[in-house]
Amino acid sequence: MSVRTLPAHRVWGQLDSLPVSLFGAVMALTGLALAWQLAHKRYGAPEWIADFIGAVAIAAFLALALGYAIKLAGAPDAVLAEFRHPIAGNLFGTIFISLLLLPILLAPLNLLLAQAIWAASTIGMLAFAWLIISRWMSSRQQVEHATPVWIIPVVGVLNVPLAVPSLGLPPMHGVMVAGLAIGLFFTVPLFTLIFSRLLFQPPMPDDLLPSLMILTAPFAVGFSAYVATAGNVDLFAESLYMLNLFLLALLLERLRNLWRCCPFRISWWAVSFPLAASAVAALRFAVAEPGWITDAIALSILAFTTLTLAGLMARTLIGLARGELRRLN
User: Fold this and answer.
1) Cα(294)–Cα(19) distance, rounded to whole angstroms?
2) pLDDT in tens, 61-114
3) Which CATH class is domain 8-254+267-328?
4) What residue spans define the domains of the chain?
């Protein structure tokens, strides 16, 4: 089946429908690049795979940043409405998370640039998390709005420590501990609230079902953040990893029929970063605890994540070429 391409002005005309959640694709691609870097070190996987995925992640961020800047200039009311939305507003954290992860890829190319981006995005992420939590506390919230997307500001803060070991910065132990502590502390009540909503409230709309996978992210990212901060895999780190595996298995079973029951939407990208974070955690754990079981788990998650992201990327690009962005949002 051929893909009908649109004139350039029609493609640019779709940008008023560009969702901020698409920055989650940058998060996922960056995480997948890091996973393949670990696979190169652990199993001797071709280094070019990580380099290629990293280049795609950087290019995707630049394209989305340009597109969203055009949307901001041309449709500021739409951006403001998106930011004020009780669910979608949390997704602005994907911009800061992308900027927290990209310095890991940029450090070998330009260390000073990577350090500057990390410092600015750390301040921005902490300010964004403070703003969102303040917004929750300042007015009464509706239970039906408590979806897994609410965890994104918390996951964002957990990403603060990840790039520090590769940036050659002065001692940042306090900043790393702050990101870890804030992220893990707020994970507990938010996870409880969201799990309670899933148990006692009507089911979430089909378009939001992929966001269930976000529930694994605090534990996958928390594991990597804790290991980066503590410098080793201890009992607490191992507990985070095992909990991530349990939730991953649980939610993959819940979402096994997603491809057949629901038409593709941009919201499907919600599964991507949690999978990539799980792949990174599994490979880190396999390095720390080598064995055929840990290797098999790590390679299985890496292969599944790679295939899933390739499918999401292909379907999104086809939708953009067909002019379907407004419908897919």
Assistant:
1) 37
2) 999 999 899 988 888 888 898 888 888 889 999 999 999 999 999 999 999 999
3) mainly alpha
4) 8-254+267-328
